[in-house]
Design a protein that fits this description.
322 residues; Rossmann fold; 2 domains; 25% strand
Length: 322
């Protein structure tokens, strides 16, 4: 078994590579060749959440299992809030061939899915992105949009000013775009072509009344996260990553259904269907679109597979007998 650390993964993976891998996996999902059972979600005494999830992609011969957790108090301890590991198995023998850092895989594959949604659903000339949240997930979301759109300006908000200032400095330096600190969430949304919510909010931070014609929104997260109000679902054309998962795990989606503002049948498509050409992407310049992502094991699996392949080629990682 080859163990791949965060450092190893950072040497072999970049957002473009992961976008390509996730796209292949999502297309396979749309074609019905993915086995992916509902994941287990464990609430840890109100301080964190742990997930257990797995997937087999028959067309690609990829089999993987991930355990990942998010503990909100970790920042105060000086360690990342996102922790976990991915096991990659040989799809012919079941042998465990690799164990790798799950936090890096999770952040990159979530950013890749957001990028693919932006490519399919945002206006083609989108240049301004507003983002609520400045953690690891926010960083890969911005990196992904930068790949698929001619990004010129990023507006960011966090209630912790030191975090948002550091975020904007990093984005401006790495991507060579303008990045500004917004004083309020409303300022982030106003005039943006793409709006991304990447927070741990348990109450809505993006009201549907703020959405403007032609705007695309992406919301990530499951479990207790509830970033959107029911009006967002009422106004937007809704695309999800995984219909079953979204209906089970997207708390704000479930709330909109309970309020009568949305019906499960109102979900227009899964992202993989758009990428496979089974459903249309953006249909009009003034259309308001929403990509509601809860994350999927298949995204972890394909990202882990390409990481392992590249690590073997580069001679990275540590072989450990079981």
């Amino acid at each position: 078994m080859r163990v791949l650390t965060r450092g190893d993964l950072e040497k072999v993976l970049d957002i473009r590579t992961v976008i390509d891998a996730v796209e292949r996996g999502l297309v396979e999902q749309a074609r019905g060749t993915v086995s992916m059972p509902p994941r287990q979600i464990h609430s840890i005494d109100g301080v964190g959440t742990a997930l257990v999830m797995s997937a087999y992609l028959g067309g690609m011969g990829v089999l993987a299992l991930k355990v990942v957790s998010e503990f909100r108090g970790n920042r105060d301890r000086g360690i990342p809030s996102l922790q976990g590991g991915v096991l990659l198995l040989d799809a012919e023998t079941g042998e465990v061939i690799s164990l790798m850092d799950g936090a890096t895989i999770t952040a990159l594959r979530t950013g890749a899915a957001g990028a693919l949604a932006a490519r399919a659903l945002s206006v083609v000339d989108a240049q301004v992105v507003g983002i609520l949240g400045t953690g690891v997930q926010a960083r890969t979301q911005i990196q992904g949009v930068w790949v698929v759109r001619d990004l010129q300006l990023v507006k960011a908000y966090s209630p912790t000013k030191a975090h948002v200032r550091a975020f904007c400095e990093e984005v401006a330096d790495q991507l060579e775009v303008d990045a500004m600190v917004a004083d309020t969430p409303r300022e982030v949304v106003a005039g943006s072509d793409i709006v991304i919510t990447a927070t741990n909010a348990t109450e809505p931070v993006l009201p549907g009344s703020w959405l403007e014609e032609g705007m695309h929104a992406t919301s990530i997260g499951a479990g207790p996260v509830q970033e959107l109000d029911a009006e967002v679902y009422r106004r937007a054309r809704v695309v999800v990553d995984w219909r079953e998962g979204a209906l089970e795990e997207a708390r704000d989606l479930k709330a909109a259904i309970a309020e009568g503002a949305f019906h499960p049948d109102d979900i227009d498509a899964e992202l993989g269907q758009l990428l496979a050409g089974m459903r249309q992407g953006r249909t009009a310049k003034d259309e308001i679109t929403l990509f509601r992502s809860v994350g999927m094991a298949l995204e972890d699996a394909v990202t882990a597979a390409v990481a392992y392949e590249r690590a073997v080629e580069a001679g990275l990682g540590t072989d450990v007998p079981l």
